[in-house]
Amino acid sequence: MEHHLVITAVGRDRPDIVNQLTRHVSDCDCNIVDSRLALYGSEFTLIMLLSGHWNAITRVETTLPLKSQELELVTVMKRTSEHEQRHYPARATLKIRVPDGAGIIRQFTQFISDHGLALASLRSQLDYQILELEMTAYVSDEQVDEADLNDKFQQLCEKLKTESAEFHIHPQ
After folding, report:
1. What class does CATH assign to 3-80?
2. By CB count within 10 A, which of 1, 74, 105, 126 is most buried?
3. Is the per-residue pLDDT at 84 higher than 80?
4. What phi and psi values does residue 9 have, to the nearest 5 degrees?
5. pLDDT, position 140
6. Is 40 left (phi over 0), alpha (psi -120 to 50) or beta?
């Protein structure tokens, strides 16, 4: 039976650090099912979903704290289950450029939540006081009124004085 473990590692970015971490996971006989890496300032963040037999996952859980200390990483681990694919009738994509300010991202995540969309990804980057935001959300209601949703999105964008904003719904 396959078991699953999510690992988040944060540490100072330096050559070979990710290789050492992924080698350790592989040496424990775990498979990296999914991963994301990002750099924030001089730090890197790596999130991995591992799979393996019970003993392999347990080996990672027991050996990673010492390896993390050796590599000067902060790590968090949590057992999880295999990801279940849900069927959504559509996917919404949002791309926004807006002058930065407190609470901007929260207002867009609130928009997603208020309209019953399931946030799937969020990427933001600040460039010379302009926040670039990309979001993907799943539309669970087959009867969603795309025009009405787009109008409400444009109203929010006008209120926040966005430089540019795109909102599209794509059938799955």
Report:
1. alpha beta
2. 105
3. no
4. -125, 135
5. 80
6. beta
